[in-house]
Design goal:
The chain is mainly alpha-helical and 210 residues long. The protein folds into two domains: 13-69, Orthogonal Bundle (Arc Repressor Mutant, subunit A); 74-209. It is 75% helix and 0% strand. The protein has nine helices and no strands. It has helices at 13-31, 38-45, 49-55, 60-76, 87-103, 107-115, 121-143, 150-173, 177-209. Helix 1 packs across helix 2 (38-45) and helix 2 packs across helix 3 (49-55). The longest helix is centred in the C-terminal third of the chain and has 33 residues, at 177-209. It is elongated.
Length: 210
């Protein structure tokens, strides 16, 4: 009797869609946005091209956007923000998660890093959603709010880009994680303190101009 593989079994719609998104994420991460095609996703998932189209009638663009969303979710979820955990431990846990993604590297990390150089406005907007989520979580840990002043939010965005580059460079150089965490933590404190100071002075300057 023929035994069908998991991919050939009839799956619930939600589970099948998840399978196809994961396949698209893997292909786009490994081969680039331009190599993502329905046929490649169908082959990886062990289904027909028509079935992929059934779940993504918007075509390749819809499928790629779903994969970018998935990458963002995997990188930004499970951020440690519990105030009962000491701040230093929260920072170390969150940095270790990012370093785990970068060290493997996971499909989510590869696709996210590709997205930083994307020109498609829709892909940039999706990446921005999850970057803002991480910035909000950093602000929650450091300042107790997910809605920091604009100056602080902008500074944290720059800090996040610095962190991503530092993590990748530290992996290439073989720098111990403890040193990376120390470096990033010191940079974060300097960035937050400077940005908070600027944000606090901004209203006074505005009043003087008036």
């Amino acid at each position: 009797m023929e035994v069908r593989s998991a991919s050939r079994r009839r799956l619930p719609p939600a589970e099948r869609r998840e399978q196809l998104i994961e396949a698209a994420l893997a292909i786009a991460a490994q081969h680039g946005h331009d190599r993502l095609a329905f046929e490649a996703v169908a082959n990886r998932a062990g289904v027909t091209r028509n079935l992929v189209y059934h779940y993504f009638p918007g075509g390749r663009k819809e499928l790629l956007e779903a994969a970018v969303h998935r990458a963002g979710q995997q990188l930004s979820s499970d951020w440690v923000t519990d105030p009962k955990i000491p701040l230093g431990e929260r920072l170390a846990a969150n940095l270790n998660r990012l370093m785990d993604h970068a060290a493997e590297p996971t499909h989510a990390w590869l696709l996210y890093r590709q997205g930083r150089g994307a020109v498609d406005p829709a892909l940039l907007e999706i990446a921005s959603i999850y970057r803002e989520e991480v910035i909000a979580n950093i602000s929650l840990n450091q300042l107790g709010t997910r809605h920091p002043p604009p100056a602080v939010r902008i500074a944290l965005g720059g800090f996040l880009a610095f962190t991503e580059t530092t993590i990748e460079a530290s992996i290439e150089e073989g720098l111990p994680r403890e040193q990376v965490i120390e470096l990033v933590a010191a940079t974060m404190m300097g960035t937050v303190n400077a940005a908070v100071g600027v944000a606090g002075r901004a209203p006074q300057r505005s009043r003087r101009r008036g």
